[in-house]
Design goal:
With 437 residues, this protein is an alpha/beta fold. Helices cover 37% and strands 13% of the residues. Strands 1-9-8-5-4-2-3-14 form an eight-stranded mixed beta sheet, sandwiched between helices. Strands 10-12-15-13 form a four-stranded antiparallel beta sheet. Helix 3 (65-78) runs parallel beside helix 9 (296-306).
């Protein structure tokens, strides 16, 4: 087949894809009491399908040209020097914490038994990599209505074995990052920002993910942009990027991209470990790593989604403000969320803490909302130390976790994602008032 004929067929298939999307994926009217109000969801358009078809027609299958473009665009958008695409936000956390344990970090490497300050309130895969690397989590409290940590409590929790901070920004509301970064610098702690819920948030105009040494993102369909499954690790030096990529790519020492050989120009000229001189660098392993790469389909979709990020974040903020204004007259019963001082959150959801004496308890309110087709979620794992998986872990609890327990018992969140229109949000407000007034 001639290249001209192939190009023409490609144009036809892409045009048909856009036509198919317009025919099958049009907006559906919201009907109060009949249409569900989800807490989250993907927002796709014809351009997204276009990119997926482009990647499919390449038949490359694994990481390729779209991944290169997406990583470059993502790094530029987030203010990072480098972005490394992985197959999920959970994998991003695993790679980031593992990278801090690499022997290539020298004396700064985290070692089994070292302590890492984190919170008990959050998603399990922020905590899991700490445990999986033989590190000891040190738990500090989180409190409503910001759902953040107190930097003074963080500093008070530091002990002689404390080597790092790993903190997630809850529902897109950043922690007090300047204070936490100063603490990390003062005590020579490694700092990982879990930004999986917070892409697009800023502190003093500076993007989250640029205050720590490493940062992580998730592109699951619920998140600010989606690649289906997917995530990324943000880094700020070429050396750290190499370590991150090694853990992502089986632990190999070689840094050739898929389909490429001899990037270092000495593929058969290395002598590492106790291997014979000249052992193929492509099969030399300097880390105990994994295969956590994403596909070019995911990267192609991410590239299209990233172009719409600013609009998505603006709509999330607008939806948040509409809910806040509409629920403010119920503030005697509901503790409404507050942005951390000096921040501009990129809201992932709208957190609510039910006050003592409210007309309904948290459990009763959640059930009533779900019965009326309004989706709800609890605050992830609540107090993770009360979860069955973590009963017997080695840990240190640095302070009373009363705020975390309060969140576990009384908080939940509802959606603000860009797919929610005014009619659905007005219905949510109507139901809240009917239930609580």
């Amino acid at each position: 087949m001639s290249s001209e004929r192939a190009a023409e067929l490609r144009r036809q298939m892409l045009a048909l894809g856009r036509e198919y999307f317009a025919e099958t994926q049009g907006p559906r009217p919201f009907v109060a009491g009949q249409s569900r109000v989800p807490v989250s969801g993907k927002v796709l358009d014809g351009a997204d399908l276009d990119q997926l078809l482009e990647a499919s027609l390449d038949l490359w299958l694994t990481t390729g040209r779209f991944a290169d473009q997406f990583e470059s665009a993502l790094a530029k958008r987030t203010g990072a020097a480098h972005a490394t695409l992985v197959n999920s936000g959970s994998s991003a956390n695993l790679v980031a914490v593992s990278a801090l344990c690499s022997s290539k970090q020298g004396e700064r490497a985290l070692r089994p038994g070292d302590e890492v300050i984190t919170t008990a309130m959050g998603f399990p895969t922020t905590l899991n990599p700490i445990l999986q690397n033989g590190l000891i989590p040190v738990f500090v409290d989180a409190t409503a209505p910001t759902y953040g940590v107190d930097p003074a409590e963080v500093e008070a929790a530091i002990g002689p074995k404390t080597r790092a901070l790993v903190l997630a920004h809850t529902l897109g509301n950043p922690h007090e990052l300047p204070a936490l970064a100063a603490i990390a610098e003062r005590h020579q702690l490694r700092f990982v920002e879990d930004c999986c819920d917070a892409l697009g948030a800023t502190v003093g105009g500076r993007p989250v993910g640029t205050f720590g040494e490493l940062a992580t993102l998730s592109f699951y369909p619920a998140h600010h942009i989606t690649t289906g499954e997917g995530g990324a690790v943000l880094s700020h030096s070429g050396r750290m990027k190499r370590i991150v990529e090694s853990f992502r790519d089986w632990g190999r020492d070689c840094w050739c991209a898929p389909g490429h050989d001899d990037t270092c120009n000495k593929r058969f000229g290395w002598q590492l470990g106790e291997l014979p001189h000249g052992y193929d660098h492509k099969y030399t392993y300097s880390e105990i790593g994994y295969n956590l790469k994403a596909t070019d389909w995911q990267a192609a979709l991410g590239l299209s989604q990233l172009a719409k990020l600013d609009g998505f974040v603006a709509q999330r903020r607008a939806n948040f403000q509409r809910l806040y204004a509409g629920l403010s007259d119920l503030s005697e019963q509901l503790l409404l969320p507050e942005a951390t001082v000096g921040t501009e959150p990129s809201w992932f959801g709208f957190p609510i803490c039910v006050r003592p004496g409210a007309a309904l308890s948290r459990g009763e309110l959640v059930v009533a909302l779900e019965q009326r087709l309004i989706g709800t979620r609890l605050m992830f794992g609540g107090n993770l130390l009360r979860q069955p998986a973590y009963r017997d872990i080695s840990r240190r609890v640095a302070c009373a976790l009363s705020g975390t327990d309060n969140i576990m018992k009384n908080s939940f969140w509802i959606g603000v994602y860009p797919g929610l229109g005014e009619a659905s949000l007005d219905y949510v407000l109507e139901v809240f008032h009917a239930l609580l007034k």
